[in-house]
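Reopening: structure tokens for the S-adenosylmethionine complex, inputs below.
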Amino acid sequence: MAVDLNTSVPHSARIYDHLLGGKDNFEADRSAAAEIVKASPSIPISMRANRRYMARVVRYLAAERGIRQFLDIGTGLPTSPNLHEVVQGVDPATRIVYVDNDPIVLVHARALLTSTPEGSTAYVDADLRDPVAILNSAEVRESLDVSEPVSISLIAVLQFIPDEDEVHKILDTLLEPFPSGSTLAISTVTAHNEQAVAGAAAYRSRGIHAVARTDDEVTALFRGLDLVDPGVTLVHRWRPGPEDEGVEDFHVQMSGGVAVKQ
Ligand SMILES: C[S@@+](CC[C@H](N)C(=O)[O-])C[C@H]1O[C@@H](n2cnc3c(N)ncnc32)[C@H](O)[C@@H]1O
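Re-run output (same inputs, fresh job):
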């Protein structure tokens, strides 16, 4: 399959990969990343905190809420540990569907398809702004059972969908077919950190729409659902692990939370 990577234009997945120390990026991504770091020097610390948050959230959902199927949208390039490695560590029979719309993630998707033999992983090349296409994809239909609770995770992706009405519609559509006990996990750029606001502006100056949301706006993303403790927080404060000790609030530019459908 021929994939057009359009390497002269910066892509959010490749900027993120570069800032996490990865190698799947190009000059346009590295130059955009340098500008973003100038505007927002703590962003690499924040991104690592966000990645650890993802792992803690999905481990909690698998281990403490018994979720055995995951739909992760805006997956990004493979980065250790990947979501399936965390949740299949809890139960090897867990099924995971990954979704991203960046061609470079598609190129590297093989590294996301390393499921245990008991479980499954699948990858869908699709856009979050078309949730019906995601739900109707062969991978979702074959891997996810709509009679069982699912975890839908949108980690560090909703900042790229600035319109609140559009985000609400997307979330409602994604959760609609799944039963009570299903969960929504989010992290997104927070407006209560000046660096985060400057970082979002630096993304926009390179042609990538990004928005920083207030805590109220992040909380509103969970409307109709029950937030689990500790509610919406900076990501390093959500059930922190040992590696989060010593991380300062002003370094962290993402807030998030987990909520359950009744
Ligand atoms: C900052 S990365 C986050 C990766 C991963 N979720 C994490 O937190 O480590 C954002 C990802 O969202 C993807 N993305 C951005 N807009 C998207 C859209 N409209 N549909 C699907 N994926 C999208 C990007 O390609 C990128 O891989």
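The chain has a mean pLDDT of 94. The chain has one domain: 12-260. Marking as resolved unless the reporter disagrees.
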